[in-house]
Amino acid sequence: MRLSAFVRAWLRAPIPSAAVGGAILAIAFAAPATAQSADAHGWFSPEQVVRGADLYERRCAECHGEEKAENFETWPYSAQDLIGMIISFDMPANRPGGLPAQEYVDLVAYFMNRGGLPEGEEVLAGSPALSEIKIPQ
Length: 137
Known about the structure:
By secondary structure, the chain is mainly α. The chain has helices at 5-12, 17-29, 33-41, 46-71, 79-88, 101-114. It is globular.
């Protein structure tokens, strides 16, 4: 089998070892794309945060005032844990555990956004991501 002069020259050309080594190191030590994108784009859509703020104002602020929302700005556990805690304390008081699941998620989106969690894409009730979402500490 005959190779063209171009292919033979390309096969014999020296490969700069620094370029290859740098590329290998970059690939070997790169963070997984999912971890980078999760940190870069945040969680909960801006619309969820607004819905959560509105829900808090309509359903929670009358009893809890602004201070309760401030208490969650440093919540160290997951969004799912916060939803569970709210429900376990029989909230809202006039209908314990009676909000649609997505409203609990939106409420937590509002709390976590106040705590510094950047906005990102919408998170739906029942999403496994709720167990991963945490306010940056």
